Amino acid sequence: MGKLALAAKITHVPSMYLSELPGDRHGSRQDAIDGHIEIGRRCRALGVDTIVVFDTHWLVNANYHVNAGSHFKGLYTSNELPHFISNMAYEFPGNPGLGKLLAEVCNDYGVETLAHERTTLAPEYGTLVPMRYMNADQHFKVVSVSALCQAHYLNDSARLGWAMRCAVEDHYDGTAAFFASGSLSHRFAQNGLAPEYAFKIWSPFLEALDHEVVRMWERGEWKQFCGMLPEYAAKGHGEGFMHDTAMLLGALGWSEYDGCAEVITPYFGASGTGQINAVFPVTAVDGDAIPKAQASSAGGYTHIGQRL
Predict the structure, then answer these.
(1) Which end of the chain, C or N, has fewer beta carbons within 10 A?
(2) 134 CB neighbour count, 10 Å cutoff
(3) What is the rounded distance in angstroms from the CA atom of residue 6 to the CA atom of residue 301?
(4) What is the CA radius of gyration of the chain?
(5) What does the pLDDT look like over 97-148, one tens digit per residue?
(6) 295 with 156: CB under 8 angstroms?
(7) Which of 8, 1, 9 lies closest to 240, judged by CA?
(8) What is the value of pTM for the model shown?
């Protein structure tokens, strides 16, 4: 019925907002902003009506969660970096019907997921920053999905991504885009060194690791990347333990995905972390490639180090 038209791994660095404001950082993230604008333009050209964001700033400790509110409006100040994002205005429509559908199909696929429709939950800045540049005119409806998962299997996140694609393609009367909103390496500069690392990666090891991952994405080496993802998430300090990336690749077909990433905004450093905007072409896929959901009785915090 429906269509998943576009998938992307995107940055949400708060210095993009600083880049708008007068001061030393003015204009410094225009390349990242332009990347968001281009991805938004492509979504419009493809007829996307709803953007689903796997948000690595939405922390959860149990289950997966979908913000299925009908409308979002407010002023946002980051509790993490209030000197970067303060009183940032936002407004855009939600999509309660799709949000509930996504959760229903995830549960059908054995991944326990809750949709929250009548809620005061506001989106986190992993959603708010991209929507500022892609959706300033409120053209798109927006659904946020929790992707800072504290006690979850990467297997389940991949399965969730596949289930959400099935929800769109089999049951939704519309067109969606899926975004993994998070960095590659996410080792922030040590306190007191942030200004020195404003445009740098924290270590040569992390920078080299990130560059190799981007090359793998561009070459379509998905079996190799999916095999190394748990260790990369751990040793590379992946944002949100890279659950957003597992969700996105699950939706695309996991290790059987046959597309090659297109870099829109080249890899860049921000406060020690590694960032990118990249589009992943949506291709036909065999869902049997997606990792099966773990049994609910499986123990341990295996978001880091769990082999898929």
Answers:
(1) N
(2) 27
(3) 32
(4) 18
(5) 999 999 999 999 999 999 999 999 999 999 999 999 999 999 999 999 999 9
(6) no
(7) 9
(8) 0.94
Alpha helices in the chain (DSSP H): 15-20, 30-45, 96-108, 125-134, 154-171, 204-219, 222-235, 243-252
**Cα 89 to the center of its chain, rounded Å:** 21
Q: pLDDT per residue over 8-32, tens digit each? A: 999 999 999 999 999 999 999 999 9
Q: Which residues pair with 297 in a beta bridge?
A: none
- Give the separation between CA 226 and CA 232, rounded to whole angstroms: 10
Domains of the chain and any CATH numbers: 3-289 (3.40.830.10)
| Cα 128 to Cα 117: distance, rounded to the nearest angstrom | 18
Alpha-carbon span 138 to 210, nearest angstrom: 33
CA 100 to chain centre: 19
Question: What is the mean predicted confidence (pLDDT) over 158-185?
Answer: 98
Question: Is residue 302 over pLDDT 70?
Answer: no
Residue 130, helix vs strand vs coil: helix
Total Cβ atoms within 10 A of residue 190: 11
* 38: its two tokens: 């281009």
Q: List Cβ neighbours of 35 (8 Å cut-off, separation of 6 or more).
A: 10, 11, 264, 265, 277
Average pLDDT over residues 202-208: 97
Structure tokens at 291: 């990792």
Burial of 20 (0-12, 13-18, 19+ CB in 10 A): middle
